Amino acid sequence: MNKYGVKCAPYQFQHAVNLAFHKSESGVYDSIHRDMWASLPQQFALLISDYLASGEELGNDLVIVDVGCGTGLASELLLKTKIGDRVSEIDLLDTSPEMLEKASERASTWKVKTTTIHGGVRSIAERRRRYDLIITCSVLHHIPDLIDFLQDIRHLQAPRGIFMHLQDPNGDYLGDDLLQERTRELKDYERPLIPKRLRRLAPRNVIGRIRRKLSNREDEDYISRVNKQLIQSGLTREPMIAPDIWAVTDIHVHDGEGISIKTLSGLLGDYRMISVRSYSFFGKMASELPTAFKEREQLLIDARALNGLEIAGLWKLMNDR
Ligand SMILES: C[S@@+](CC[C@H](N)C(=O)[O-])C[C@H]1O[C@@H](n2cnc3c(N)ncnc32)[C@H](O)[C@@H]1O
User: Fold this and answer.
1) Which ligand 1 atom is nearest residue 66's CA?
2) Which CATH number do you get for residue 35?
3) What CA–CA distances, in Å, run from 133 to 68, 83, 90, 250, 259?
4) Does some domain include residue 184?
5) pLDDT 10s digits, 136-145
6) Number of independent structural domains in the chain
7) The pTM is what?
8) Structural domain contains residue 133
9) Going edge to edge, which strands form the sheet with 157-169?
10) Mean pLDDT across the chain, nearest whole number?
11) pLDDT of residue 218
């Protein structure tokens, strides 16, 4: 904050950067997160199968809230799982109006009733609605105060309801030797053998350079749009560099802590952990891996290894209140 001449409180700064960032990201979100669209359906299917195999009951006419819904990815993938046809209503909640607009467009193709709500979990608590299933996908690592956030989640949960989270950095294993070894192995595999000078001349690489230039421009635009908004609003005096912006928005990625299942277990006191699953065992989503690595990723997923880069979980509230 000192570096950029910020004078407001840290909480206000985080909120403003978060809003500007997601406003700017909303237009390119689906294209820059193609890997999530391609790789996450399996993780949704696995968590739901684990729930169905657990012997716990699940009713019909499920009412769901997708917290931090973004462009609607989590709800869309959930609707495609085995419980999709038991869903009757989805509330799409986000602090970014631009993300909500995208989610609303997507939701118009779904066969369930949807309502978009602008705000955070605290703001919908006043509606006194309780949800059978609460989902957060790629959201927990954006939340500065997880204790408060999870308390709000608990208040929104219907008795015996489900809380699901996916796509967060795996806090309990970020320093894991095997994860680091596998990540290095992939990097080495992808390191080209031909010297850089010669590679630059290959037609494929010339075309690649042009493409990258164009998409970098898209990236630059998206970061510069964030800066433009922050400077115009008087929050910052000069443009923030991209890693500094990400350090504010993806707060638990850049603090090196990630999201820890051990910590969540403590914070989700009256929930029972039904399933915890990890993925991205080579540091990248399955869809981004070369074939041989894809097969090994699948073996680790099948073996329910827990030391991947990303973590997901499904919890059931064991309380009737
Ligand atoms: C990385 S995106 C994830 C979007 C979507 N869930 C997905 O998986 O693609 C994070 C989303 O959370 C929203 N968000 C961040 N903090 C929030 C909060 N406290 N309450 C509700 N939404 C929040 C952002 O505006 C953004 O749309």
Assistant:
1) 6
2) 3.40.50.150
3) 14, 11, 9, 24, 20
4) no
5) 999 999 999 9
6) 1
7) 0.91
8) yes
9) 113-118, 87-94, 62-67, 131-137, 157-169, 310-317, 271-279
10) 92
11) 54
pLDDT tens, residue by residue, 18-54:
999 999 999 999 999 999 999 999 999 999 999 999 9
Q: Which atom of ligand 1 is nearest to the CA of 120?
A: 20
Q: How far is the CA of 160 from the centre of ligand 1 (A)?
A: 25
- Low-confidence residues of the chain: pLDDT under 50: none
pLDDT at res. 202: 72
For residue 256, what pLDDT is reported? 80
In a domain, residue 65? The reply is yes
Residue 233 in any domain: the answer is no
Domain that holds residue 41: 10-178+252-317
Cα 211 to ligand 1 centre (Å): 29
Ligand 1 mutation target, pool 66, 78, 94, 149, most atoms within 8 A of CB: 94
Give the span between the Cα atoms of 102 and 109, in whole angstroms: 12
Residues in the ligand 1 pocket, defined by CB under 6 Å:
18, 22, 67-70, 73-74, 93-96, 99, 120, 137-139, 142-143, 167
Tell me the residue type at 53.
A
Question: What distances in angstroms separate CA 293 from CA 45, 183, 187, 216, one per listed residue?
Answer: 21, 11, 11, 27
Model pLDDT, residue 319? 81
CA-closest candidate to residue 261, choices 135, 143, 173: 173
Residue nearest to atom 22 of ligand 1 (CA): 68
Whole-angstrom Cα distance, residue 321 to residue 319?
5
Output the pLDDT for position 278.
98
Which among 117, 123, 139, 249 is the best mutation to test ligand 1's pocket, defined by most ligand atoms within 8 Å of the CB? 139
